Amino acid sequence: MENKQLLQIAQEFGAPVYVYDAHKIESQFNRLTAAFKSVKQLKLNYAVKALSNINILRLMDSLGAGLDTVSIQEVQLGLAAGHKAENIIFTPNGVSLEEIEIAAKLGVQINIDNLSILEQFGSKYPDVPVCIRINPHVMAGGNSKISVGHIDSKFGISIHQIPHILRIVELTKMHINGIHMHTGSDILDVDVFLYASEILFEAASHFENLDFIDFGSGFKVPYKEGDIQTNIEEFGKKLSKRFNEFCKCYGKPLTLGFEPGKFLVSEAGHFLAKVNVVKQTTSTVFAGIDSGFNHLIRPMFYGSNHEIHNVSNPKGRERYYSVVGYICETDTFGSNRRIAEITEGDILCFKNAGAYCFSMASNYNSRYRPAEVLWKDGKAILIRERETFDDLLRNQVDQAHLFEPQQVEATK
């Protein structure tokens, strides 16, 4: 997308606003598919938590992607978007047996990551196919908050507990049809991923009736020009070869599964915000925008980097700015960034705003969540309206009668 198009969207729909490029999402999907072209059965399940707008889910369905869901609400969103139940995998963590039972009744693929629920579910529903999430005890990911496959992680069943899993399967006679892992996000080193994959292959060899092996995702995307990223083509070539070899040893062709979220939508997203004030202090120049970590929390939460461009003055002389929000706490998007000269009223664009941005937005400080726009076939299409004051009050129960002034009788 070009600056001219982004400015037009900001003018038409107001700022702040999220914009998603459908063509970039499609190209990322095709790139990942092409990397594993030598695998006969490939299944890409989009991680709904990255960006859950129902129109994005419909776009994924049109591309041939399934869905990776982590809550019953995400399952219901996927079904409402038109995805078939058999194309949805449910991989929760720490939820009740009741929630898993609801998902099973809806017909989606169940993925269980702890021994207690595995035994309870297998005892009640031995005929329902279940995938098992393994913790490979591999530290991988770009931040401790998004590394989920290490020994201290709450996710998955330890590889050292395989005998316990086998005992439960034998006693309940349940049907295990898949093995799964997810080590973390922003994984750069292909060899680390391949190492974890070998652990998953070893775990898979203990189960006779598998239909698929799911390797999760976590591929690193570039956050700035020239940034390093996962070499998907190299990884696809190496893992495909090893996967095909395993299938031969296993005795039947299996489906190779992935759950890309950030890889598909991160670079497709743009967040546009208007500059409210340029504030010179004794130490820096602040550009204060009409947004905050209530709309884009990743820099404050993960320390993540989002490139910031002045689309109102792209060719202006570059100066140093600290871009901050309007939340009444430390609320910094970037410190001492070189950005084309900013004046009040300019529109700034935050790159890589497709994944874990709007989906983590809130009404903190009683601010409205922004609109969402899909750029498709040369057109800007509104896919979520900007919130209003009515939205803030929607589920609040007004009990004004409890606080009416009491009448005090005057003493005689």
Automatic annotation (TrEMBL):
E.C. numbers: 4.1.1.20
Sample GO molecular function, one term: diaminopimelate decarboxylase activity
GO biological process, one term: lysine biosynthetic process via diaminopimelate
Annotated InterPro entries: Ala_racemase/Decarboxylase_C (IPR009006), DAP_deCOOHase_LysA (IPR002986), De-COase2_C (IPR022643), De-COase2_N (IPR022644), De-COase2_pyr-phos_BS (IPR022653), Orn/DAP/Arg_de-COase (IPR000183), PLP-binding_barrel (IPR029066)
Cofactor(s) needed: pyridoxal 5'-phosphate
Active site residues of this protein: C328
Keywords: Amino-acid biosynthesis, Decarboxylase, Lyase, Lysine biosynthesis, Pyridoxal phosphate
PROSITE patterns from the UniProt entry: ODR_DC_2_1
List of residues that carry N6-(pyridoxal phosphate)lysine: K49
UniProt keyword annotation of ATP-binding present: no
Keyword GTP-binding: no
Enzymatic class: lyase
Reaction(s) the record says it catalyses: meso-2,6-diaminopimelate + H(+) = L-lysine + CO2
Signal peptide range in chain numbering: none
Domain Orn/DAP/Arg decarboxylase 2 N-terminal: 24-266
Pathway info: Amino-acid biosynthesis; L-lysine biosynthesis via DAP pathway; L-lysine from DL-2,6-diaminopimelate: step 1/1
Pfam family, any one: Orn_DAP_Arg_deC
Binding residues for pyridoxal 5'-phosphate: G218, Y356
Binding sites annotated in the UniProt record for substrate: R298, Y302, E329, Y356
Domain Orn/DAP/Arg decarboxylase 2 C-terminal: start-end pairs: 18-354
Assembly mode: Homodimer.
Similarity annotation: Belongs to the Orn/Lys/Arg decarboxylase class-II family. LysA subfamily.
Role noted for this protein: Specifically catalyzes the decarboxylation of meso-diaminopimelate (meso-DAP) to L-lysine.
Protein name in the entry: Diaminopimelate decarboxylase
